[in-house]
Write a structure and sequence with these properties.
Length: 569
Amino acid sequence: MDAIKTEVYNILESAIHAAVAAGELAISEVPTIPFSPTKTPEHGDIATPIALGLAKQARMAPRNIAEIIVKHIDPDAHAIIRQIDIAGAGFINIHLSDNYLYDTLHTIAAMQAAYGTCEKGAGKQVQIEFVSANPTGPLNIVSGRAAAVGDTLVNLLNAIGCNAIREFYVNDAGGQVQRFGESIDDRYRQALGEEGLEIPEGGYQGEYLQAFAQTIVETEGDAYLQLETDERVALFRDKGIAHILTQQRTSLERFGVNFDVWSSEKAIRDSGKPEEIIRVFRENGYLYEAEGATWFRMTDFGDDKDCVVIKSDGEYTYFVPDAAYHRDKFDRGFTTVIDLLGPDHQGHITHLKNFVKGLGMPDDWLEIFIIQQVNLVNAEGNRLDMSKRRGQFYTLDTLIDELAETVGEQFAVDVARYFFLMRANSSHLDFNMELAITHASENPVFYIQYAHARCCSIFEQGAEQGITPKPIQEVSLKRLSEPMEHELIRKLAEFPSIVLLSAEAREAHRIPHYLHELSGIFHPYYNQHRVLDPADMEKTHARLILIQSVQSVLKNGLTLLGISAPTSM
RNA sequence: GCGCCUGUAGCUCAGUGGAUUAGAGCAUCUGACUACGGAUCAGAAGGCCGGGGGUUCGAAUCCUCUCAGGCGCUCCA
């Protein structure tokens, strides 16, 4: 809660206490006073349904209670309040005096790029693990969505004062990558003319593997045929992983996502932590042997079935290194860990949480969110299959390539990020390629960027006319008296609380919506009111301050999303 | 069968238990400046918020049942 709300809160609280003292309100204790958002200017700047909440306790009609509370507030005694209304069922609507509105502009001018940030999360060490795609193929669209969301969440958490980092967990060990190596081997031998080879069930069939095998043949010939099969497969596996990883990293960088830490499952396995985990589980009685395997008692934690942690062949299932990995995160000192998982990992959530609980870490230490699936829809409205196991799928790079053809590389990234970010994580997302490509110019991201570019353009125009913006201290903000100007300022004032809410709720999509709303006030204002008016320089300078503020907030918001704020388009 | 997600305007989606008229974008229809950038703006039309029941002064929102769609329930990762 910011300073203004705190001040209003105190005024309301003392009014209620005064009413109780005067014997007009029969309540035993004053509850926390809630504020409700005001949707229209008629509802003032701050509204509270407190009278409705007190109705039962006080055994009075909400409207009467509101009247009593308001009676004990003297608007003239508080500079902050311009007017108080009682509306609807008993809402108390508070209109702030213009000076407090203008304070927002002073705050923005003073904080600039830092406007919107706070220190609420100070001291929190947060790690967000996201994308973490298998190193067996190019990144698909869901990974792109996860990349955009994770990257933005880190930005948001850092904005509220946390120390948050981006981490990618590479599944470079286990059965999947083994089969990956085998698939490369098959392709390699195929490329050398061996016939009758078929990619087995569970193998990787993507064309990119044929191309990769072909490259090996072209650069190194058939030398590897001399090796034993196991040796060759292991070698190809490692070569393949390194190749794919580089590719994934390049795609992510192109998408504007740079991970701080790349963790390796293989390294975790080699660290001895899995053995440590097993030891702890065993000591706590969570394990038992059956059917030749070792099982974890998931049912002790309320799940409906137990799960295998050590297979009958002596190998760990992926659960063990994953649990060890989370233990490792804990040991590294993170106070909060957030995992963004793909839609096919739902079953993993309770397992992971139970393991973490079994290792004695706090319940709320690990947060897991599913980034829901993205369905690519083609012109006919048919869904395209994006499975990595199938031959063809749509990659993040292909998406950017196709968008770039019509809107250019930078905007392609911007548009894709915006599309991925504009919906709640839990919402399934239909990505209509035709629409994204052919109607790119009608995309909401352009609307926002255009608003920013327009702001910049005003200053350019001003410069041509010899108008230099004045420092805010020398400007008469009173001249910002149009209703739309007040509406704009109120919207600008919301930004820090939107950032805070968005970060705390891990809901990145609130930022795109906010920016779109802000742009939706700016554009009409721009159309109706001329900023540069040589005949009235006082007004011009006041409006330039407003435009500067809008520009700052748009830029700060877009920056959080990893989307560019162009000065011209 | 069990679990998770989703269901809001023709389409894609926002919506924190609170306000008369449930909001945007796209699509549709009608309009706009000799103007700081028309990638803009003004307006119209479009809704039993999947359905039933419950809690409440008040429910798109909470609870419950139910219907529909998606996904997950491997000694795969």
